[in-house]
Amino acid sequence: MRILFLIFLTLSFNISTQVPEPDYGLPELASEERIKELNTKKRAKVMTQSVARTMQKVIDALDEAGVLEQEKELLKKAKKEKEANAKDPEIDSAIAKGQKELDALRPRLASLKSYDRSMFYYYQSYYNLAYQNKIKDAISNYLNVVKEEDTAEKLRVEAYYVLSQLYLSEADFNSGVEYLLKWFQNAPEVKPDAYVLLGQAYYLLADQEKSKSRALASKQKAFNNVQEAKRIADEKQLRFRENWYSLLIAAMSELELKEEQIPLYEEILELYPKKKYFVNLAGLYSDLDRPVDYTSLLKTAYTKQLLDKKSEFQSLSQMLLAAGNPYWASEVMLMGMTTVPGLRVVDQECVLSKVLDEDGNLKIDRDGVAIEEQVCTDIYGPAFVKAGSSMALDQEATPVLVEDKQNLTILAEGLRAAKERQAAIDVFKKLVKITKNGEAYIAMGNLYYQEDEIDNAIDAINKGLKIGDLKNPGFAQLTLGQALFEMQRFNEAREVFNKASKSKKDTVKKSARAWLKYTDNEQERVRNLNLRKESIS
């Protein structure tokens, strides 16, 4: 019994992490015979004269509503909301005319030919869906399109696809999958978006499954179908849409395929460089213990001006400093202290667009064709901008990083490592005002010493030692002693080295004693030199 339980446990574990076989869950496609049948030109069916006249009025009403909708959209783009809203009654009136014709035909449906009925159901479903928001009625009418014996085959196949979309929108995922599979079996050509739709259906269906094994199976089917969409898109050099990437990555996450997500995130960041994708990929790098990649990713996010959180600026700066890039580390902190999140123009999109006349109607030429003109729109992206700038997302926003002890320390360390000593000194001057210990003065004194500003070095280190609470006072005393030595203030230097020689650190003791001996020798040498000068004079 125990062995059976262990076998079951092992199988359960394997199921939860199993990568599906490549073809698992992929739909059956139309046979060559079926495709040939669909592509063979057949004699077109013809509606009876009275029905054809009615349907022409229905189509004319749709055309009229379509023109009015274009005018409304252009008015909205021109920010003429009042004029745009005024188009709504005209659109409603056009649709009402078409619906009136359909309503008049409805009582005669039973007596009509099958092909006539299919056209009625087709246009009624279009009205239900596009203008009346009657999803259930649209489903009912599309089902009738499918059921009619003489429905044109291309129209029937189209109905399968629309039915699958409508069922999915109503959260009837099983019916959505059923009609989408029928569409695959009859479609002469399959594009990536159909596989994505099926993948989405399976992904949503997984949440409704009661057993874990059935839920996992649906997730595996979802993954394989979106993966197939990706394969076709790559093969045909089609752009894989952003929401398709999101679905594929979500399916991979459910199957715990972390390593496999990384190439996808790298692709999506090239096409859609948004903050959320940087954050997600950074999380993966962290989970997979890839600190170098994590730092590189944060740096890319910085160059694309996507950072907008205190922790992001600080982490990137500290990682760059640890990686031996102090200049960049300082640059990141300075940017965080002086800018706020904003927008900038990153591109411009120009398209041909229909235009309106003074009355808000589409401009047309002598032949009645709508006139098109090139319209260009600025495309904005994230940016670091000055606080209070018109391009700031929040006019009242203050820089992401404030000049507190933590941020100023990170900046000062970066500047010091980059050998930007004067800039580092300026930062330490701010730090001494907000810190309670003498560390900032000591650091400032060391920088002055390296810049050969010996008097300033002595002054700063003395202040730091006086304030105290230092991690390594012995090292500070060594630097002070060396500065005093440089100024030939040997007695003061000897006094400081004596204090340093009592340090608890052996390295400090050893250096202090060596400097004491060197100081004595140098003082004697200077004294003898001065005596010679005096005797000569």
What does this 3D model show about the protein?
The protein is mainly alpha-helical and 537 residues long. It has a domain at 435-536: Serine Threonine Protein Phosphatase 5, Tetratricopeptide repeat. Helix content is 68%, strand content 6%. The chain has 24 helices and 2 strands. The protein has helices at 2-17, 32-39, 49-77, 81-85, 87-105, 114-130, 135-147, 153-169, 173-186, 192-206, 212-235, 242-254, 258-271, 275-287, 291-303, 310-322, 326-338, 405-417, 421-434, 439-450, 454-467, 473-486, 490-500, 506-536; strands at 339-354, 372-386. It has a two-stranded antiparallel ribbon with strand order 1-2. Helix 9 packs antiparallel against helix 10, helix 17 runs antiparallel to helix 18 (405-417) and helix 20 (439-450) packs parallel to helix 22 (473-486). The longest helix has 31 residues, at 506-536. The protein is elongated and about 135 Å long.
Estimated radius of gyration: 38 Å
Mean pLDDT across all amino acids = 89
What name is given to the CATH topology of the domain at 435-536?
Serine Threonine Protein Phosphatase 5, Tetratricopeptide repeat
CATH homology superfamily name of the domain at 435-536: Tetratricopeptide repeat domain
- The computed structural class is mainly alpha
* Portion of residues within helices: 55-70%
Strand arrangement across the biggest beta sheet: 1-2
Residue runs with pLDDT of under 50 for 5 or more positions: 1-17
